[in-house]
Amino acid sequence: MLSGYEHVPSASEWRALGPEALGVLVRLYNDTHERPYVRLRAVGAAGHFPSPAAHTFLLAVARAPRQSDLFVREALLALGRAFGRGAAREIRPFLGSPEPVVRDAAAVALDRIQRAR
Fold it and tell me: What tens digit of pLDDT does each residue of 54-65 get?
């Protein structure tokens, strides 16, 4: 599901795998031998499992020292998607990031949260 390029799994397809899929996604992200795009997609897919474990995982990815800006971007968007207003306080500080991709992701996530109201 993470390797394909012709089909992007929907939220319902991810959720149909059950909550234990989150653990698999976390392991894939942590596997530095895995292809980077698979690891990146695992972070995004974690946003389809709005649980305390997903929240902790996504924040850890976003806040990891020397983290790739693309991984931070994906984690912020997933946080916003999964936790909405509950994540706004945690996303807001990323608006001050020196990385344009991170600032943009924070702004997009916050805008989506605001529009969802």
Answer: 999 999 999 999
Q: How far apart are the C-alpha atoms of 84 and 87, rounded to whole Å?
A: 6
For residues 39-65, give the mean pLDDT: 97
One DSSP character per residue, 87-114 reads: HHHHHGGGGG-SSHHHHHHHHHHHHHHH
Distance (Å, rounded) from C-alpha 54 to C-alpha 58? Answer: 6
114: tokens are 């605001």
Provide the whole-model pTM.
Answer: 0.93
What structural domains does the chain harbor?
Answer: 11-116 (1.25.10.10)
Six token digits for residue 84: 């909405």
φ, ψ of residue 8 in degrees (nearest 5) = -100, 120
Length of the chain: 117
